[in-house]
Amino acid sequence: MQYLFDNFWALTITGLTLGAVYALVALGYTLVYGVLRLINFAHSEVFMYGTFAALWVVTFLGGNATGSIAQVIFWIAMMFVAAMAMSGLIAVLLERFAYRPLRKRNAPPLIALISAIGASFVLAEIMGLREKITGWFGLDTPLATYVRNSRNNAGMPEIITPQPVFTLGDYAVTNVDIFVIVGAIAIMIMLDQFVKRSRLGRGIRAVAQDPESAALMGVNRDRVIQVTFLVGGVMAGAAAAFYMLKIGITRYDAGFILGVKAFTAAVLGGIGNLRGALLGGFVLGLAENYGSAIVGTEWKDVVAFLLLVVILLFRPTGLLGESLGKARA
Amino acid sequence: MSYAQRGMDWVRALPKPAKIVLWVLFLVFLFALPLLNIPFITTPDSDFGGVLFTVSTYVLVALGLNIVVGYAGLLDLGYVGFYAIGAYTVGVLSSLHGSWPWLWTVPVAIGAALISGILLGAPTLRVRGDYLAIVTLGFGEIVRLTLVNSQWLNGAQGISNIPRPPGAELFEVPSLDWSSGAPVVDLSNTTTFLKFGITDQIPYYWLALSVILLVLLFDKLVKDSRVGRAWEATREDEDAAELMGVPTFRFKLLAFALGACIGGLSGALFAGKAGFISPDSFVLLLSILFIAAVVVGGAGNRWGVILGAIVVGYFPERFRDFADFRVLVFGLALMLLAIFRPQGILPPRRAVRAIEADEKLEALEEGEVRV
């Protein structure tokens, strides 16, 4: 308990940075759940591909800790572009090959989950076997920097050294912390406005509210679903870029635990509710850190899951309720 | 109608004595399977008896999970938790904090799984279906992480020296040798009947197979009783069932608890055979493979579920040549199956009829069929 009070600000800030990543990934779950009423089990892999895209682009551009300010901004910008493009692409492919064929056949929801589990295995294993797969084409030697040791951790060169900006209590808040938290919130406000104001956003809300009426009103349902997956993927890509800036290490199976946590965040805030995902992510990040300070770091994941169980028992619709469709126009 | 379905119907139409003879022959074949060493079926890279035991635990787990997922329609993604509780109860009582014989620990393991099933189910079965999936997913992870972190349970090191099931050395059973191209009885390679040792894993398979038969009998009795009909009603339309006077919550809890019992029993069997358990034996992936076994085979049909468990348990062992790629291939297979055969390989007959009726209705609405 004393540990919690002594390190309160450190725990809060790291909890918030982690929470920002959870929240961005949670958006993908929430959006897809909103329009399709199913859990996109493979969304964690969408995130994982984003981390690798970020890593590869920084490696390719020769990023290092001694770059000038202009260089660092360029690297970070490229990192975000690459991660968001990659995750968006994977999410769209996922929809095209794992979900759309099922929708055409009116398969039961359990089957969609099985298909998603299959897709998740395929995506993770392709990444985990990239050394072998590139080897078939004789590309493993030229691409060695990117594909070597494909089943082990891959680390990214540090491009911004964390430097203290100001202190809170006795914790020095670094520029990376601020960038992650502020950046994530900014991206989420943009998404919220997109769903609220744009034409496509209106389509997403219409399909979430009532797919059949939306179709009758001339909304192209397939297109809306595709856009939803794309937007969710792009958000996961942004999360992946933030994650690589803060943590810097990824692996072919890095998505799994983070995906489960992000899903927890989505349910915590009320699945289908965009602001709920933001709140859920931050609450989960903080609760995890405070909880593990009290009962020990090794129980961190247990704290997260217990929190989920407790919330579902006392408030099954999450903190803010489910309302992607019900959000006022 | 599929060929498998047609085959089943053909068997059903046989006169009763013929059916009994067929059944007995099939059972004898199943028990003799590890001794026959049939080419192509036998796994070249790992001990066939051991593989058959693994497949049998998958079958057992799938039968238990089928009660929860197939009959009652509750998606349980943390089934490995009950499996782990069963195995750890055996480990703790027989090796780590006690020295009970294996056989005595089994009922306790089943009881522990039952209690944890009720404790988990009582609060969570009131929440909606897809949330249940996530709560149970969390439960499976909580169980595993507790095993990793608890000093009393020996943490990540796990429990070793778990005693084996009690046995006797009654007589030797010879096996077949196919190396010359035709089957020859090989008297030098024999299995001692019911000696639960380390090298020869065939007796464990026999034990697991016997347990499966008992569970199958139990499964049939329950499914065909009032309880089974209550489950079906709850699964198809919970509100309607409640209005018709079915106490849906109590029946859902019963399904959950029975499923947990069978999960605990399989865990106990696994612990007795492996002799060593650690948290690594109970990863979340296993829960997902169990669910896959049930859905691949056809949730709700016990024969389909058994087939699914065999597919999920056996093929990765048989095709070890592709060791690196087997998860990838498995994932692709799951996707293809979901797309081309969404009801599973062997769906329940009622589901098949329901689909046919739906198709007819649709054809009527479209005006393609004149009545």
UniProtKB/TrEMBL annotation, chain A:
<keyword id="KW-0472">Membrane</keyword>
<dbReference type="GO" id="GO:0015188">
    <property type="term" value="F:L-isoleucine transmembrane transporter activity"/>
</dbReference>
<keyword id="KW-0029">Amino-acid transport</keyword>
<dbReference type="GO" id="GO:0015808">
    <property type="term" value="P:L-alanine transport"/>
</dbReference>
<keyword id="KW-0997">Cell inner membrane</keyword>
<keyword id="KW-1133">Transmembrane helix</keyword>
<feature type="transmembrane region" description="Helical">
    <location>
        <begin position="224"/>
        <end position="245"/>
    </location>
</feature>
<dbReference type="GO" id="GO:0005886">
    <property type="term" value="C:plasma membrane"/>
</dbReference>
<feature type="transmembrane region" description="Helical">
    <location>
        <begin position="178"/>
        <end position="195"/>
    </location>
</feature>
<keyword id="KW-0813">Transport</keyword>
<feature type="transmembrane region" description="Helical">
    <location>
        <begin position="20"/>
        <end position="39"/>
    </location>
</feature>
<dbReference type="GO" id="GO:0042941">
    <property type="term" value="P:D-alanine transmembrane transport"/>
</dbReference>
<dbReference type="GO" id="GO:0015190">
    <property type="term" value="F:L-leucine transmembrane transporter activity"/>
</dbReference>
<feature type="transmembrane region" description="Helical">
    <location>
        <begin position="72"/>
        <end position="94"/>
    </location>
</feature>
<keyword id="KW-1003">Cell membrane</keyword>
<dbReference type="Pfam" id="PF02653">
    <property type="entry name" value="BPD_transp_2"/>
</dbReference>
<dbReference type="InterPro" id="IPR052157">
    <property type="entry name" value="BCAA_transport_permease"/>
</dbReference>
<dbReference type="GO" id="GO:0005304">
    <property type="term" value="F:L-valine transmembrane transporter activity"/>
</dbReference>
<feature type="transmembrane region" description="Helical">
    <location>
        <begin position="106"/>
        <end position="129"/>
    </location>
</feature>
<feature type="transmembrane region" description="Helical">
    <location>
        <begin position="302"/>
        <end position="321"/>
    </location>
</feature>
<dbReference type="GO" id="GO:0015192">
    <property type="term" value="F:L-phenylalanine transmembrane transporter activity"/>
</dbReference>
<feature type="transmembrane region" description="Helical">
    <location>
        <begin position="46"/>
        <end position="66"/>
    </location>
</feature>
<dbReference type="GO" id="GO:1903806">
    <property type="term" value="P:L-isoleucine import across plasma membrane"/>
</dbReference>
<dbReference type="InterPro" id="IPR001851">
    <property type="entry name" value="ABC_transp_permease"/>
</dbReference>
<keyword id="KW-0812">Transmembrane</keyword>
<protein>
    <submittedName>
        <fullName>Inner-membrane translocator</fullName>
    </submittedName>
</protein>
<comment type="similarity">
    <text>Belongs to the binding-protein-dependent transport system permease family. LivHM subfamily.</text>
</comment>
